[in-house]
């Protein structure tokens, strides 16, 4: 797909590394585990939102925006990176944060909350979990307009067709890296939240006639909700690019059993996975997204879902500040 024709800002120099995790592979005793280090993408602290923001912020600038408005949970990597992109572009940024546990937002909450303030967020509005965040963002945009600003709403998770283009591009990057390193990838495993990453990646692979299955580990919703959302985003990407890529429902492979009791709620498997990645490879995962996704990868390998000879690529989508906001979880032995 010829993505160079779409406006894009560049926040990362070159490709993120794709490497084998020899010691983690040995510790799990199964499939050959590889990692794609999207935690090393550009902007403050890296992570998957950087790729989406390259396209979204280019669009905001094209429209003459001076203020980015977006939303997320209290410890939102997406909000931190949208704010970081705003700082880099000389724009202002206002955030709507949904609070699951009342009182969990306070300036000493650490992790991403610390970074919102360090990066000079212009305004934060905390709303209860389950609020209509789209309506909240529209209200914030109206308020900004009344102040003479030109606001641009970045959707939740950056997961519209434009944001997902970042992962259409990533699919092409992975295919090239597999080709040049001579490592045929058999499976890709990723964390799935608002589903833009999964949808873009799947569209990018299939659009290049590459049928590597992607296993999505849900960290937010049931697999039925996710499946519906992925179908919608894929249709929107196809419309935006004007490309018809047939993607049957069976091409979408999702697991919601690693979510545990819900978004941000720790699981024993997540704690084991975060510690194992740190102690075998020195790689830091986060408790909300990549820790649960790695717990899924490890469990599915142990159960034989991935064969011992398979090359399984784990997409590290970032989230490191979330680890520092949850340190006590990992301290007791
Ligand atoms: C670290 C990390 N990994 C994975 C995801 C999930 O990506 P998506 O919302 O595109 O499914 C997010 C979303 O916020 C994230 O912050």
From TrEMBL:
Q: What does the UniProt keyword field contain?
A: Hydrolase, Pyridoxal phosphate
Provide the Tryptophan synthase beta chain-like PALP domain boundaries. 12-318
Per the UniProt record, the source organism is Pelosinus fermentans JBW45
In which family does this protein belong, per the annotation? Answer: Belongs to the ACC deaminase/D-cysteine desulfhydrase family.
UniProt GO MF annotations: 1-aminocyclopropane-1-carboxylate deaminase activity; D-cysteine desulfhydrase activity
One GO term under biological process is:
alpha-amino acid metabolic process
EC number(s) on record? 3.5.99.7
Q: What is this protein called?
A: Pyridoxal phosphate-dependent enzyme, D-cysteine desulfhydrase family
Which residues are catalytic? 76 (nucleophile)
This protein's cofactor list reads: pyridoxal 5'-phosphate
N6-(pyridoxal phosphate)lysine: residues bearing it? 49
Q: What class of enzyme is it?
A: hydrolase
Read off the InterPro entries from this record: ACCD_DCysDesulf (IPR027278), D-Cys_desShydrase (IPR005966), TrpB-like_PALP (IPR001926), TrpB-like_PALP_sf (IPR036052)
Q: Which domain of life is it from?
A: Bacteria
